[in-house]
Amino acid sequence: MSSEGGSHWLSNKHIIVSGAGISGLAFAISLHKLWPTNVAPPSITLYERDPSAAPPGREGYSLSLRSDRPSAGIQTLQKMTMLDALLDVSISSLGSPSTPNRPESPEGGFVFWDKDFHPIVKLRSKTPPNLPISSMRISRASLRRTLVSTASSLPGVSIHWSSTITNAHPSPSGDIDVHLKDGTTAPCTLLLAADGSSSKLRTLLRPRDRLRFAGPTCIFGTAPLSLSPSPSPSEFGSVISGSGTALFVAPIDDSRLVWSLSWHSSVPSLPQKQPLSREESAALRTEAKTRGAAFGQRFADMLERTEEGSFARFNAQDKDGFAHAGNYVTAPEYVGLEGRVVFLGDANHAVSPFAGNGANLALMDGWDFAEALVGEREGLEGAVGRYDGLAVGRARKVVRMSRRSIRVMHSVGWRLMVYVMVLRVVKALFFQ
């Protein structure tokens, strides 16, 4: 922490965070690290709907943490002094010397395979100066557990599990009264919405700011890692059929992989998530087998050995971010909260899984808003302006990038050949 003296408008105040996901936890850890040692800090309470850091059925996938622009998840973790702890629980990393706890492969990175699982292009980011790695693959469960463990150990930080914020209103004292699902009310000076892409607070304050369908519908599940198209745990990526379907494959841990079969739909399908009945899981397995026929016997084997309790269906969705200015609270009954509620991570800007960047944006939002708050000692407005200047533009870039990825992965005919040539040029210019 800095030893810089003086006062701060948040000293001895209370910050409430809706959601103990990646952005909310990153904020709490970052604010504690950045706060001046001789200034009284605010207390932070996170309310989370999940019952624990890694609830069953919600953590069965892995994430990419990256250093290539506009991503800076690795750089952010280094600033948070969390990089080593997360490397120790990562699946793989690129750029560092190999150790038993940090497996690294010179052949690792993102791979585009053809329908016969032959590599088309391998993309591996260059390691930036002053960083030990360029990227890592980590299970969401490991990432969240590590962040929770760190945040929970900090003085003045508390996490309430199985607790949901249902509403919020200005109080007569000038603070915010936050209403919880158990009927109690908690006061705070600043309320952060970090409750994910289906944010309850965004629905209340910005009812017309909704997720939009990005085009693909996906069925996914988990299968043995031995069925991966790559022998290296450091490789993951997309299998392109050339007929409009795509298959994403990535390791979750040292024994399992997650696969996701996707195709373009004119309208979104009905989402299905666990727990599902045996009949519902069987129907998804059958549909995936039919839609993924172009991927041959290897995918048929994946389906055959997919855990029944892991099947699910979702629609890829996204939304651009927004700035906290110009009447950003659009619901008339909540205008009194304008300038007191700040949206972080997916609650502000949702990206589809095709972006491969949601966790990076969440980490960056948490750090950048904490840094802006510490730097603006007289009030919230300047801090929010600094944060918006960083967060909104980069999130829009990521949304555009994900839309391009969707086009590439589901392309057919001559478009696919053009995209492959472009990918090879991009690799030569920007990747190892």
Textual characterization of the structure:
By secondary structure, this protein is α/β, with parallel strands linked by helices. 31% of the residues lie in helices and 23% in strands. Helix 1 (22-34) links the parallel strand 1 and strand 2. The chain is globular, with a radius of gyration of 22 Å. The two termini are 36 Å apart. It comes from Polyplosphaeria fusca. GO terms for molecular function: FAD binding; monooxygenase activity. Keywords: FAD, Flavoprotein, Monooxygenase, Oxidoreductase. Belongs to the paxM FAD-dependent monooxygenase family.
Shape descriptor reads globular
Tell me roughly what share of residues is in helical segments: 25-40%
Strand order of the largest sheet: 6-5-14-15-16-13-17
What average pLDDT do the residues reach?
90
In whole angstroms, how far apart are the ends? Answer: 36 Å
E-strand count = 18
Element string (H = helix, E = strand): EHEEHHEEEEHEEEEEHEEEEHHEEHHH
Number of helices: 10
Q: Report low-confidence residues grouped into runs of 5 or more.
A: none
Structural class: alpha/beta
Radius of gyration over all CA atoms, rounded: 22 Å
How would you characterize the largest beta sheet?
7 strands, mixed
Q: Give the strand content.
A: 15-25%
Tell me the layout of helices and strands.
Blueprint: E1 14-18, H1 22-34, E2 43-47, E3 62-66, H2 73-79, H3 83-87, E4 92-94, E5 109-113, E6 119-123, E7 135-139, H4 140-152, E8 157-160, E9 165-170, E10 176-180, E11 185-188, E12 190-193, H5 200-205, E13 212-224, E14 235-240, E15 245-251, E16 256-264, H6 278-291, H7 296-304, E17 312-318, E18 341-343, H8 358-375, H9 380-409, H10 413-430
Parallel strand pairs: 1-2, 1-12, 2-8, 5-14, 12-18
Antiparallel strand pairs: 3-7, 4-7, 5-6, 9-10, 10-11, 13-16, 13-17, 14-15, 15-16
